[in-house]
Design a protein that fits this description.
This protein has helices at about 10-15, 25-40, 45-70, 85, 90-115, 120-135, 150-170, 175-200, 200-205, 210-240, 255-265, 275-295. It has one domain (about 15-295). The protein is built from twelve helices and no strands. By secondary structure, the protein is mainly α.
Length: about 300
């Protein structure tokens, strides 16, 4: 079958959206909702819109990444979940359309949220999020190819995701919200770090200079371990500065045992895929426990 005639099945489109990355979109909103409740400012419809924006954004960036990497040929020998363009099961134009539809939906929903909340200055942040999603691997000089992907993930799916969710409800943020934003951002960055650690051999071969290829295998493993430690340090800080139950997120550490073991014992290739899943689940659990702990 010619590439332009390829038609992916529904299950392949779902896999191409990378559902294992969805905790990166859900966790910041959950943590932000918890912080908003602690400020007596919870709004269910603003929370729901924030969640839809976040989900649309991550699906959009995943399809955009699939399209851009696919047409560059950097996905041809990648280990891991299905890549629609790289594997040839979907035409590049179809994946590009899916990316633009998802990012457009994020933009429309974000505009609605801003209009209803009256926080018009947040339009600038929303525009930056959409541009960041596209230029991660899109354009002539994608910043993801130059080692800046981790910074973007920390900012967009950590700081912006959590603090934006709080701000559209409360009109302000708190120190607890900032702690949650840094924690979720660290987790989300750790997910990308584990992904890029797995892809070091193929990225080096294709000329993709991620932070992992710059740090090398050993340095990237150290970075991952530091990133997953940060949220638990912050949980202890919340417990000391607020009340003991604010440290409830510490319970999520058990979800990382296998992941940390794989990283420490030099797992490679497909053996690192569970680390991405477990890190995402730990992030989601941390966010849920933080939302509960801040409000009991």
């Amino acid at each position: 079958m010619a590439l332009n005639d390829a038609m992916a099945s529904l299950s392949e489109w779902i896999e191409g959206a990378r559902p294992r990355t969805l905790p990166n979109a859900v966790a910041p909103v959950v943590a932000g909702v918890g912080a908003a409740i602690a400020l007596d400012a919870f709004s269910w419809w603003r929370s729901a819109l924030a969640l839809l924006v976040s989900l649309s954004l991550i699906v959009g960036v995943n399809y955009a990444n699939d399209y851009s990497d696919g047409i560059r040929g950097t996905d041809e020998n990648r280990v891991g979940p299905l890549r629609l363009v790289g594997s040839g099961v979907a035409a590049p134009k179809a994946v590009l359309t899916a990316a633009l539809v998802a990012l457009g939906l994020a933009g429309v929903l974000g505009l609605l949220l801003v209009a209803l909340s009256g926080q018009w200055w947040l339009l600038a942040m929303g525009a930056l999020c959409i541009l960041g999603a596209w230029f991660y691997t899109g354009g002539k000089k994608p910043y993801g190819y130059y080692g800046f992907g981790e910074i973007a993930v920390f900012v967009f799916f950590g700081l912006a995701g959590v603090l934006g969710t709080v701000y559209v409800q409360a009109g302000r943020v708190s120190w607890a919200a900032l702690a949650c934003a840094v924690a979720v951002g660290s987790f989300s960055t750790a997910v990308l770090t584990a992904n890029n650690l797995r892809d070091i051999p193929t990225d080096v071969e294709s000329g993709k200079r991620t932070l992992a290829t710059r740090l090398g295998d050993r340095g990237t493993r150290r970075l991952y371990l530091i990133l997953v430690a940060v949220p638990f340090v912050l949980a202890v800080v919340l417990g000391f500065t607020m009340h003991s139950l604010a440290a409830l997120p510490l319970l999520s550490v058990s979800l990382l045992f296998q992941s940390v073991s794989a990283i420490r014992h030099n797992a490679t290739g497909r053996d690192l895929i569970p680390a991405l899943r477990d890190t995402g689940l730990a992030m989601l659990a941390w966010a849920v426990l933080a939302a509960v702990g801040l409000n009991v």
